[in-house]
Each structure stands twice: as structure tokens, then as C-alpha cells.
Amino acid sequence: MKLYHQHYLEPVPEIKDFSEDIDLEFIIKDLPKTIDSMKMGAERIRQLVLSLRIFSRVDESKMKEVDLHAGIDSTLLILQHRLKLKPQIPQITVVKKYGNLPLVSCYAAPINQVFMNLLSNAIDVLEEKLETDNFFIPTITITTEINPDNPGTVLIKIADNGLGMTQEVKDKIFDLFFTTKEVGKGTGLGLSISYEIIVQKHKGQLFCNSQLGQGTEFIIQIPINQESVGAIRESPVQESGVRRNIRI
């Protein structure tokens, strides 16, 4: 079209009329933008499909060595529609403090389901607090590290700066069907299932640290290598100041 305009400044009337009817000048300006948007949309779909595949691990039913950070990032991408800016609601900030983790021997899909449950719960709590505090800056902090007191295990910490919970609620959060959400919003299964996946399926531990009004932190502790699991000794991970003996 650029070459045509350079060499044929005065097109025949039929072409000129048709160009005006279809608003050719606008199309020439808008078409590159449309193609760029299509490319961005296709790349977005590609990333989502890849993330869903990593999240579900449909081709990996056996225990394998897994990059936990890839699982967390894929879960965050799937939940992105709940994290981004909404009308009159601040965007939820996600702070990643990733340590240098090795590949961890685990069942990838169930572990990713735990990430999904914990992150979804954190978002629910932050949205609830936003309803009563317009100046609140919602934040989720994800920390990963090799357990400094037991290098054979890794720690994944997911913390929010939401409402927190009472000791009475905290004592029940892993109970089957227990929920503090309104009818229709919660099943009481997410945390119970997560506990089963971490403790029974991976011989790890799932802790909760929380105080009313000061947010909540969930701590996942799982062995790097499942074959080395067996001994029971005191863990440095504490739950509300109480040190517990756990299987590692």
C-alpha cells in the first residue's frame, strides 16, 4: 500500500471510493497494532498451556525430581486473573524470595495442588480485608530455602498480610470440612487435602503461623530425597512458638 501511494497519487474513482468506504487510512494504522495484539494473545495462550501442563503434570504420574519454583510460578500464572488490578481494588503484590533449591523428589501434580490451595486461600483472605480497609496494600510473600537446620529438607513459606486468625480457628484449619468462609464459598477440603498430600504422601510437614490482625504464614517442609526419609528428630520449624517433633 505504501508503494501504491508513492507511485499512484491519484487512483481511479472506483478505488478511491472503495478506500473511503473501508476507511483505508485507519486500517493501515490499525493493522500493525492488531497483529501485535494477536501475537501477544497467542503468547499468553502458549504460556497458560505450558503452565497448565507444568501444574497438572499429566505425563508424570510417578515421583520424579521437580523444580518447585516452576510449579509455584505456573500456579501464580494460573491465578493471575485474581491477582491483577480490579476496579477500585489494589493489585495483590507477590514478593518472591526464592532460594537456591535443588530438584526435589516428589509427586509434582499434588504438590502444585497444595500451592494452588494455599495461594487461593491467601487471595481470599486479602480480598476479605480489602472490603473493610481501602488503604490496605495486599501482599503475598513466597520464600523458599533449604532448611538451615536440616539440609535434607526444603522449606516453602507462603505468607499473607491479611486478617490472621485466632488460636481456636488455627487449631481446626486442617480438620476435614472445617471452613470459616460463607456458605457456597468454601468446602473445608483445601487445607485438609493439602495436609494429607504433604504429611502422608511426601512424609513432610505443613505448619501454620498466624495471629489475629497480623496475617498468616503456611510453611511446607518436605524432604529433598524421599528415599532418605525415616528418622524422627526435633525440627527447627515452630508453630506459634511451640517446637514440635516431626517426621523428616
What does this structure look like?
With 248 residues, this protein is of the alpha+beta class. It has one domain: 2-Layer Sandwich (Heat Shock Protein 90). Helices cover 41% and strands 22% of the residues.
Summarize this structure briefly.
The chain has 248 residues and is of the alpha+beta class.
Give the SSE map.
Layout: H1 2-7, H2 13-21, H3 24-56, E1 64-66, H4 68-78, H5 80-83, E2 93-97, E3 104-106, H6 108-130, E4 139-146, E5 153-160, H7 167-170, H8 190-201, E6 205-210, E7 216-223, E8 232-239, E9 242-247
Parallel strand pairs: 2-4
Antiparallel strand pairs: 1-3, 4-5, 5-7, 6-7, 8-9
Helix pairs in contact: 3-4, 4-6, 6-8
Query: What pattern of helices and strands is seen along the backbone?
Result: HHHEHHEEHEEHHEEEE
Radius of gyration: 25 Å
- The number of distinct β-strands equals 9
Largest sheet: 5 strands, mixed
Cross-sheet strand order for the largest sheet = 2-4-5-7-6
> Going by CATH, what is the homologous superfamily?
Histidine kinase-like ATPase, C-terminal domain
- What number of structural domains do the residues give? 1
Number of helices: 8
Shape: elongated
Give structural attributes:
two-stranded antiparallel sheet; Heat Shock Protein 90; 9 strands; five-stranded mixed beta sheet; disordered C terminus; 22% strand; alpha+beta; single chain; 248 residues
